[in-house]
Amino acid sequence: MNQNSQNQPALRPPGYNMWVGVFVLFVILVSGLFYYATQKIEYVWRWNRMPIYFVYEDTVEITSEMDGEVDSLEQDGDETIVTVKELDQIETYRVPTTELNVDDGEIISIGDVLGFYREWKPGLLVIGLWLTLQLSVIATIFGVIIGVAGGLARISSNPAFKWISIVYVEIIRGSPLMVQILIWYFVIGTVVNDLLATYGMGRLSAFWYGVASLACFAGAYVTEIVRAGIQSIHRGQTEAARSLGMSYAQCMYYIILPQAMRRILPPLAGQFISLIKDSSLLGIIAIRELTKAGREAVSASLQPFEIYLVVAVLYLVLTFTLSMFVQQLERRSATK
Amino acid sequence: MIDVQHISKTFFVPHEVKALVDVTDKIAAGEVVVVCGPSGSGKSTFLRCLNRLERADSGHIIIDGIDVLDPKTNINKVRAEVGMVFQSFNLFPHKTVFDNVALAQTVVRKRSKAEAKEKAMFLLNKVGIADKSNAYPDNLSGGQQQRVAIARALAMDPKVMLFDEPTSALDPEMIGEVLEVMKTLAKEGMTMVCVTHEMGFAREVADRVIFMDEGMIVEEGTPEKFYKNPSHDRTKLFLKQIL
């Protein structure tokens, strides 16, 4: 049935083009109003300053590590090999010829700049974006694992599993993520790190407590999504599988979960889009994710509007990519 | 083969219903039994109790020497020996016809892929649907789906086949093809318990017809005697209604 509806051209209702026009007008109007508002506020927009928060060219000084005399300058392609000599001690440095700062025979002491080279480095926002991406991906993976386990426990007839799952969902879903993050880091984190220290292991960084809090938070929602997905599969499927002699686990793995997964995908995507945005709260435990990086950039540059808008667009890029990816998955499983 | 001793079953949800009341019956190997009765008579519950899809509250069900209701019994092993066909087919919609028939063979019977394939193709040929082996169930007609469901159950080499109103959800023109397959099975000597109202089928291949009402076996006998000369009033009333 799915194949048919996809191959048939959509029948356009009367006035279709007019309504497309209405949509375009709407977009133009909203953007226009937005632009007008930006012009009305007293604020100097300096978008040209934004690129340095993505990449910038850093100047790295090459300094001498000893006292001595420049013994020789030798050309090697674009670079010059500087040899510094004192008595029988010799050191060589490679310096880009154009940035060379010393002459042959010059007397130099420790820390003197022989020259410098330039290097492209990722800007603050890119570093933050990368961290947000890492946090989100790892938390999503654990969130799914927790959610599937929680969902299965939720529908289990074992009262311990079932009630643990219910309590977990209700507590996590009903309390602010901000508080959970603080508890994960300052309470659980302290205990775990103390324990690790007694066994002579290193501390876990704030990053991992951040991942744990996000995964745990998303896991509660995923639990409910998984439960609903499993329960939406007709009972006859379980009966057919079990009557063939499959165990509960085999039935779940081969029959129920694959079918449930398809129905779960859309709400799951919504949940993980939320998770990406929720990661912005992790700044409070000093994880330098995108929002925190943005805040730092704001305090350095005093350009809150540009930076926060850019940050918002970067989140949008992440969430939209995820959206598209899930849609692709849905389409693939629908045509199968 | 199947020895049912005094089983009872009461449902409490949504309200209290005595689905089975002290039912006792013996089904011999190779026997074809047709169970009929008005809706709510407990005939489906009786069938579903046999492979413990419903657990009877009391009594014993011995299949091939194994007590199905004993908590220590590995029910998965029993179920593998008892094929079941449902009214609504219950094929796995995310698997192809071929995978529907092959999956449990590899997962439950631990057969190799090649063995499972050979068996699956043999059975799909037998039910006349080998050309659709790569199709998905949603693209098949009801009759075709039910034949695949029969092949799926047969793939486990069951000793007994249970049919729960296998033709009730079918369009009239598709009933014949499913009954044909079932008749072939019966003639091959398969032990079968069929909940069905198909009189033609019962007359042709059934060894015995059981009539149930209000959770009890009211009457049983050979199809000849049952349809021509029923002894109970309730049976007479029922037969009058379905004819």
Characterise this structure.
The complex is a heterodimer of chains A (336) and B (243). With 336 residues, chain A is of the alpha+beta class. Chain A is 63% helix and 14% strand. The radius of gyration of chain A is 29 Å and the shape is extended. With 243 residues, chain B is α/β, with parallel strands linked by helices. Chain B is built from 9 helices and 10 strands. In chain B, helix 3 (97-107) crosses helix 4 (113-126), helix 4 crosses helix 5 and helix 5 (142-154) runs parallel beside helix 6 (172-187). Chain B is globular, with a radius of gyration of 18 Å. The interface between A and B is medium-sized, with 20 and 28 residues.
Characteristic key phrases:
heterodimer; A: 336 residues; alpha+beta; two-stranded antiparallel sheet; 10 helices; 6 strands; disordered N terminus; B: 243 residues; alpha/beta; six-stranded mixed β-sheet
Provide a quick synopsis of the model.
Chain A is of the alpha+beta class and 336 residues long. In chain A, 63% of the residues lie in helices and 14% in strands.
Give the topology:
The complex is a heterodimer of chains A (336) and B (243).
Chain A: H1 2-7, H2 16-40, E1 55-63, E2 68-76, E3 79-86, E4 89-96, E5 107-108, E6 113-122, H3 124-154, H4 159-174, H5 177-198, H6 206-232, H7 235-243, H8 248-278, H9 290-301, H10 304-335
Antiparallel strand pairs in A: 1-6, 2-3, 2-5, 3-4
Helix pairs in contact in A: 3-4, 3-6, 3-9, 4-6, 5-6, 6-8, 7-8, 8-10, 9-10
Chain B: E1 2-11, E2 17-27, E3 32-36, H1 43-50, E4 58-63, E5 66-67, H2 75-81, E6 82-85, H3 97-107, H4 113-126, H5 142-154, E7 160-164, H6 172-187, E8 191-195, H7 199-205, E9 208-213, E10 216-221, H8 223-228, H9 233-242
Parallel strand pairs in B: 3-8, 3-9, 6-7, 7-8
Antiparallel strand pairs in B: 1-2, 1-4, 4-5, 9-10
